[in-house]
Amino acid sequence: MAAGLKTSLFWSFMEQGGASVIGMIVQIALARILAPEAFGIMAILLVFTSIMDSVAQSGLGSSLIQRSKVDDDSYSTAFWLSGGIALLLYILLFVTAPLISSFYQMGDMTSYLRILGLTVFFNAFNSIQRSYLQRGLDFKTLFKANFLGLLLSGIIGVACALLGFGIWALVIQSLAQGFCACITLLYFVPWKPKAVFKKAEARGLFQFGWKICATGIVNVLYDGLAELVIGKACNATQLGYYSQGRKYPLQVIRVLTNAISNVIFPTFSKMKEDIGSLRSLIKDVLSVGTFVIAPISILFCVIAEPLIIILLTEKWLPSVPIFQLIFFANAFLMFQIVNLRVYTSLGDSGLYLKLNVVKALFGCTLICGAAIITQDIYIVAAATSFACIVEIIFIDMHPAKRMHGYGALQQLKDQIPTYGITFCSAGLAFACSFLPLNYILVMIIQIIVFGLSYLGMSRIGNRHVWRLCIEALGLRKRNA
Asked: Which of 21, 109, 343, 437 lies at a CB distance of 3.0 to 4.6 Å from 101, suitable for a disulfide?
């Protein structure tokens, strides 16, 4: 890997990792203070606000990154277009909030939605600033801005929870996060919006971006479908267990996948004219990413029960099976991240949209059916995990050979050693769960056993990928 890419990847990991560490600490503190019901209601609210974010941003950030040439007018046009869409969406949410509240038979939801919906303005502004930094691979500045913003909003959220605000603590924390991100990015980012709006520029950005936008809406609906259905078919407490069981695996893995994705998208975009070099980089990134993500995902499956008891207390034990199922599916996520980013970097946002629509149709049918028929959060979680794995292998990877020459079957074959070593290490670590020790000691022993066995077996049985990882960390130069 090139030196510049390694530096960008390091700061991207720092940015995502710093954000997630603060976010996880805040969420753990809130989960220990608040009841599961509050998180169940918040899960429903976030589905609606996330849809608004996807529409308001309209893939404009991705358009700015993907284009070969952009200028200040391009950024300003994207900024005003995103802000205008955000205003229309907020008006729509404000008007329809009572209907949503009536559907879920939660009278206070109207107020929650109208206040939380204000985040659409902050996130629309942030998306253009982030794109400016991502295009320049300036993840160091992103790290500083996001870390500070999350720290401030986290303090506000926990303080509100301690003062007895209940679900309002979650709403205020989310709102404060968007506002603080705006202020910190405004300070750190040299670009500032100008009173410029070019129709031709807007059309060009939207021509590529609307497909990313549509894909974002499909993904939000798909990801939030279970929450919406469970929130109606079951109760807020069960939804709270399901939501939290999914949240932590997704937060942990997003540290890695977002850090990798943020770097490889602009990097792949710059290499789109040289398919041979692009294909070589795809192999390296996929190998290194899987080497990191697969073992982390499976290790969390093994230590799920002691971890949740230690961090969240025993009141969250019903979330353990959901936590494990989601982490298991995430072990295969690198195939999705790499291939979808390649398709988009090659300019085929239409393919990206089609794949996500197909996945949503398949997943929605399976997950919605499980939720409506069984009304069982564990069966819904199992259906979600199964759907995710099937979609990655049979849908996301299907066009790979045609698009860049590195087909799905060869990708899977190349990662067999990594998965084999991962599951062997997991078996050894799981055996330690039968030790007659307290939860903390058992978890520590499991982590040590897993780590030593994984690294030891990888160095012997997966030497090519081991060398790639050492080079990516800068501990050894290529061909040294």
From this structure: 109
